[in-house]
Design a protein that fits this description.
Among the domains are: about 160 residues, no CATH class; about 140 residues, YVTN repeat-like/Quinoprotein amine dehydrogenase (Methylamine Dehydrogenase, Chain H, 7 Propeller); about 100 residues, no CATH class; about 130 residues, no CATH class. Helices cover about 10% and strands about 40% of the residues. The chain has 10 helices and 58 strands. The strands form 15 sheets. A 4-stranded antiparallel β-sheet has the order 1-58-57-56, with no helix packed on it. The chain has a 4-stranded antiparallel β-sheet with strand order 2-3-4-5, with no helix packed on it. It has a 4-stranded antiparallel β-sheet with strand order 6-7-8-9, with no helix packed on it. It is globular.
Length: about 950
């Protein structure tokens, strides 16, 4: 229930790095002042590492992480910000969730490039290049400088696999310089026609020779190797450019749009093909056709290079004979070309990596935007579209940078801390407020993930209302005393209009149900309320829409004193009423207003008042009296006797939660909207020692309310629950605790519900979406959020002890016997490995049958035997004939099974009572 499906990490100017553990492959993704670790296949969040964990002075600063490196041998991630470096190490299990700060240090000057390997560290600054060695002799790990030399503006640095050499690129020229770490001297300088943007050493060669791959901005990869008579001198052996990936006819044309050339990690290729060749493949023809190719790639150690074309197709070329002995000429040739549309992207990817873990699906990751594709190796080698399957997507567009190095930059608008959320009625879009007055609008796509719709500047403390599926937004400016409305059409430039609205206190904005082509916006403050009708109409040429704003005053609220708080009734459960049960009223401009409660006020004495809009009288002679204005009618009042309320929210079912400061903590109370002589309206009360940060309601499809109660690093989900004979529990209980302390050190700033029971949580500059979407690897028998709420409030299962006790009180012992026999039947089916269907069902006719009372002989007058729990055609095996009848042996078998394994959805107390009632039924019947 509510699995962490989508982390929204924010944009980055750095390509993600790979970090391989035993059971999974991680992406190391740097954004703002954090390093985010994602599962490479699912893109699920694993852990967030923050720079200020090591340097507390970075909290709230404007600096960003500029360079990241990984050391898989030491299980270490390094990051730099300015002249400061932080190292984290993975501890404990192989899940990648437990990390701690390993060490820190400061270098003289801002870091311009960074790399670490096998406990060795290379750091480039404006002064030159330095190397360090990790010493762990004592309890405190330290980095000891080995050597330092002057080198103009290093911007890329990479250790060779044995750390005997370092390759370095300078921003001052277009050459790759090689240094020996043993002699601390320059050994070679390799010039390029353009400044290299990427350098990599071939780390999986079966030779001890140095093999270097470089990539230049023109999309050309170059392979440098040593020769027998010069084992320490790299020479150019092969070049793979963009045109080599095109057909002969297309190669003569100018290079079309597409990506650069990428090298697929050889170790990942070998793991992928080895795992594939050990498996049986369903597609016999494909296996027969492409299995020899896979075997040849694996046996001869081909290096694979990839390029993505503008049509979304992917071309793979092989480079053979690198490991050939005796040495021979290198050969390159195209081995596959996938169909157009195999990859989806807004702009050509700047990063492609292959991730293969034995026993897990092989994944291809592209960036930007961050996407993962599951590869079926033989289908992929056959060039079929089914060889690549988009599995997950996430991440925002990268922050633009020029070349391999850019000036030290600061946080982009999407990297600033999130302050709060606002959502639409339906919960299909949210507005995100960030530090600095920046807002963004995100909509929930068809795949359940949040997509960026628009971003704009706004006032820091503006009241906001979002509607029209997130495409229209209203903001009230305290400085200008005006309401600004922004509309974001899908195919044209954004529109904006404003209208003057004067209030003497900060208002609350909320939208009401749509009226024809207009959406009413209520601007409610303690000094008065206004209605603003927002209509989007096409202009005269029927191409560019325009906004029309109409201000409509309303009568003042009929209250003795101005309210302390005004809050809208949560509209999440609004449904269009049918013609039979709808009540409509016609305003003076001919619109229809549905009689739904619009908002709640809280008086200084703690009285809740619920208000619904009323229509105005018709206008005659173009004049309208003040008494004819539309107004508000009170539909109910509840006296809570709470004063100085800190926070409050009202659900669609008119359940109101109040937070009040007490000396011992914060009191949270939940109130019903109906107060009578039998009930004060109070349904739940609990005092928390920890401060409550936010409140938000959602509703199930049948109108049950769920409350999200946000704290510093957890969110409690509360819902109503039925009363029980067997557990003394409150009418509201905790459904689930969403704890973020294990994934991020940031405190939760806000949380908000979206449609379908999805919850979005903000921590720092990042968002995490929890929902019930489950992939095939998740347990299919797990209830979703709405199903769990329905189970706690809906009908009891037939084997629930409260159900059995009620049947016994009614004298329907034969029904209880049938339930016990069916329970024995299902226990036996489960032991045989069959999952019984509809285990909770019992025909209603069983409770209506006559003759349920036991006869004087102790035998039931009605038919005995199990009532089937299964649907027609179920494959569940039937019990033996001897087990079909209620008996002592059957009861003992059931009790023995229940003592070993509890039934689902029953508490420990309910299980104990169930066993007692089964024994009681046996003793009363025999």
């Amino acid at each position: 229930m509510l699995d962490n499906l989508q982390p929204i990490c924010g944009p980055s100017s750095l390509s993600p790095l790979s970090f391989t553990l035993k059971d999974q492959s991680l992406l190391v993704y740097a954004t703002s002042d954090t390093v985010t670790l994602l599962n490479a296949t699912s893109l699920d969040l694993v852990r967030v590492l923050t720079f200020w964990e090591a340097f507390p002075g970075a909290v709230g600063g404007d600096g960003i992480i500029e360079h990241v490196a990984v050391d898989e041998e030491q299980k270490m991630v390094a990051a730099s910000m300015g002249s400061q470096l932080v190292f984290w190490t993975c501890t404990g299990d192989e899940t990648g969730k437990r990390w701690r700060v390993h060490s820190t240090f400061v270098v003289p000057g801002d870091v311009t490039c960074l790399d670490c390997s096998s406990g060795s560290l290379a750091v480039g600054t404006a002064r030159g290049l330095s190397t360090y060695k990790l010493k762990t002799d004592g309890d405190l790990p330290t980095w000891v400088k080995e050597w330092s030399l002057r080198h103009p503006a290093p911007c890329l640095v990479r250790f060779s696999p044995s750390t005997s050499h370092i390759a370095c690129v300078s921003a001052a020229d277009s050459a790759v310089t090689l240094f020996s770490t043993r002699t601390c001297t320059q050994t070679q300088r390799i010039r390029h026609p353009y400044p290299p943007i990427s350098i990599r050493w071939r780390s999986d060669s079966n030779r001890n020779d140095l093999i270097l791959f470089t990539l230049t901005p023109d999309g050309t990869a170059r392979i440098f190797m040593t020769v027998l008579d010069a084992p320490n001198l790299l020479q150019l052996h092969a070049t793979i450019d963009r045109y080599s990936f095109l057909s002969n006819s297309a190669a003569s044309e100018p290079a079309p749009g597409g990506s650069c050339v990428f090298w697929l990690d050889g170790a990942a290729v070998r793991r992928c093909l080895t795992d594939t060749l050990h498996q049986e493949y369903d597609g016999f023809e494909v296996a027969q056709r492409r299995r020899p190719l896979a075997e040849q790639i694996l046996a001869e150690g081909w290096d694979l290079f990839v390029r993505v074309l503008a049509d979304g197709s992917m071309v793979v070329r092989a480079l053979a004979n690198i490991d050939r002995r005796p040495p021979t000429m290198l050969k390159q040739f195209t081995i596959l070309h996938t169909p157009p549309g195999s990859l989806t992207f807004g702009s050509p990817p700047t990063h492609i990596s292959l991730h293969a873990i034995p026993g897990s699906p092989t994944t291809l990751v592209t960036y930007p935007s961050l996407r993962s594709y599951v590869i079926s190796p033989l289908l992929f080698l056959d060039g079929q579209a089914a060889g690549l399957d988009l599995f997950a997507s996430g991440g925002d567009a990268p922050v633009a940078t020029a070349g391999v190095i850019s000036e030290r930059r600061h946080k982009s608008p999407l990297e600033r801390e999130i302050l709060g959320f606002v959502r639409t009625h339906e919960g299909d879009a949210i507005s995100v407020a960030r530090e600095g007055g920046r807002r963004e609008i995100r909509t929930k796509g068809a795949d359940g993930r949040l997509e960026l719709l628009a971003s704009y500047e706004s006032g820091k403390n503006d009241a906001v209302c979002l509607f029209d599926q997130g495409r229209t937004l209203a903001c009230y400016s305290d400085q200008e005393h005006a309401l600004f409305v922004y509309h974001f059409p899908p195919d044209s430039k954004p529109l904006s209009e404003k209208i003057s609205v004067t209030t003497f206190s900060k208002p609350v904005l909320f939208s009401l149900p749509r009226i024809g082509a207009s959406t009413p916006i209520a601007c409610a403050a303690s000094s008065g309320t206004y209605l603003i009708l927002v209509e989007t109409t096409p202009s005269s040429d029927n191409q560019i829409p325009r906004l029309i704003l109409t201000l409509q005053e309303t009568k003042p609220l009929p209250v003795d004193s101005p309210p302390d708080l005004i809050m809208p009734v949560d509209p999440m459960a609004w449904r269009p009423p049918t013609d039979k049960d709808s009540k409509s009223q016609v305003s003076h401009i001919g619109h229809r207003h549905m009689t739904r409660d619009a908002f709640v006020t809280v008086s200084p004495k703690g009285e809740l008042s619920f208000w619904v809009a009323t229509s105005s009288a018709s206008v005659s002679n173009g004049k309208r009296k003040p008494a004819d204005l539309p107004g508000w009618r009170c539909t109910g009042r509840v006296r809570t006797r709470r004063r100085k309320i800190a926070m409050a929210q009202c659900s669609s079912a008119k359940k109101t939660v109040l937070v009040v400061d007490l000396p011992e903590g914060q009191e949270v109370t939940i109130w019903d909207s109906i107060e009578s002589e039998f009930s004060s309206g109070l349904e739940h009360r609990q005092v928390f020692s920890e401060k409550v940060n936010d409140l938000d309601w959602t509703s199930t499809y049948d109108g049950l309310s769920i409350l999200a109660l946000g704290f510093s690093q957890k969110v409690l989900l509360l819902s109503s629950q039925r009363m029980s004979y067997f557990d003394e529990r409150p009418t509201w209980g905790v459904l689930k605790v969403l704890d973020t302390s294990g994934i991020t050190p940031f405190s939760i700033s806000d949380s908000i519900w979206m449609t379908g029971g999805s919850l979005v949580v903000a921590a720092g500059h990042q968002m995490f979406m929890y929902n019930d979407s489950r992939r095939s690897s998740f347990a299919d028998n797990e209830d979703g959020l709405f199903q769990s709420v329905a189970r706690q409030n809906g009908p009891l299962s037939v084997f629930h002890p409260q159900m059995i006790l009620q049947c016994l009180l009614w004298g329907k012992i034969s029904v209880v016997k049938r339930i016990i026999c069916n329970l024995a039947h299902n226990i036996k089916a489960a032991a045989a490995g069959t999952s019984p269907e509809n285990i909770h069902r019992l025909p209603m006719e069983a409770f209506w049958e006559d003759g349920e009372l036991e006869s004087s002989t102790g035998q039931s007058k009605s038919r005995s035997g199990p009532i089937p729990f299964f649907t027609a055609g179920s494959s569940t095996p039937r019990m033996e004939e001897d087990d079909d009848h209620f008996s002592r042996d059957l009861v003992e078998h059931v009790i023995e099974a229940l003592e070993k394994t509890a039934l689902p959805h029953l508490t420990a107390s309910e299980m104990e009572h169930l066993i007692v009632l089964i024994r009681t039924t046996l003793e009363a019947s025999l």
